[in-house]
Amino acid sequence: MERIDKVISVALNVSRTDARAILKKGLVTVNGSVEKNIGARVDEHKADICFNGSKINYNKFVYIMMNKPKGVISASEGGSEKTVVDILPQEMKRKNLFPAGRLDKDTTGFVLITDDGDFAHRILSPKNHIPKTYIATLDKPFDDDLVNAFEQGIELTDGLCMPAQILALNDEKTVAQVTIKQGMYHQIKRMFKKFSITVIELKRVKMGGLFLDESLDYGDCRYMSQEEINLVENCK
Ligand code: URA
Phi/psi at 135 (nearest 5 deg)? Predict the structure, then answer.
């Protein structure tokens, strides 16, 4: 059960004050009856709640899949820099949204934007070993020594990487699919750098068991279904 003013504020993405004003104007019905009592409690998932005659979409938390373009940072506030939250369409913006995990400014691909802190913590914690898969375009080919080293776990200045999987996506071995289970700073770029290989392009294509929706252009995003949200976490 939730207070109706909170439900309206979340569902319509307005302040609590504005939600109360909307209620007092008699614009909200609960199960067919006008509700003006701002403190009334409703079952937000079962009640039929309408604003101006249209059913509201109440979700406690939202989960958004974005295909991040280059040049925006994975943060909620970036000062003079544009962030992934800044480029969300106006109707998807709401309080407390942040990207669950960081991609470098020049990395593209799957960013999950949410306001569910517990979920973000679960998918980012190295303890939970949620794999993240990237496509890396390299300035020169990689060899079997690199494959073995990635699979053993590369030592970086700030710690040992967990075993990573790598697979060639072209005959020249200059495009690789890499799967890692942590999110250390510049991790993939630094893993290749150990072998004097520079990552020219990097794109994240999968989080847990969920692939980036190929129909999303750079900068596009959409809400994720419950099934997709579960796939991110339950991938083992
Ligand atoms: N590894 C990197 O080097 N950069 C990213 O953005 C993600 C993983």
Answer: -110, 120
Where residue 88 falls (left for φ over 0; alpha for ψ -120 to 50; beta otherwise) is beta
Smallest CA separation from ligand 1 atom 3, residue: 186
At 193, phi and psi to the nearest 5?
A: -60, -30
The set of protein residues with a Cβ atom below 6 angstroms from ligand 1 is 103-104, 107, 186-189, 202
pLDDT digits (tens, 9 = 90+) for 48-101: 999 988 888 777 789 999 999 999 999 988 789 999 999 998 878 888 899 999
For residues 18 and 25, is the Cβ–Cβ distance under 8 A?
Answer: no
Ligand 1 center to residue 204 CA distance, Å?
Answer: 8
DSSP 186: T
DSSP-derived 3-state class of residue 180: strand
Mutate to test the pocket of ligand 1, among 188, 193, 201, 206 (most ligand atoms within 8 A of CB): 188
HSE-CB of 43 using CA atoms within 13 angstroms: 5
Buried b / exposed e along 90-117 (16+ C-beta atoms within 10 A): eebebeebbbbbbbbeebbbbbbbbbbe
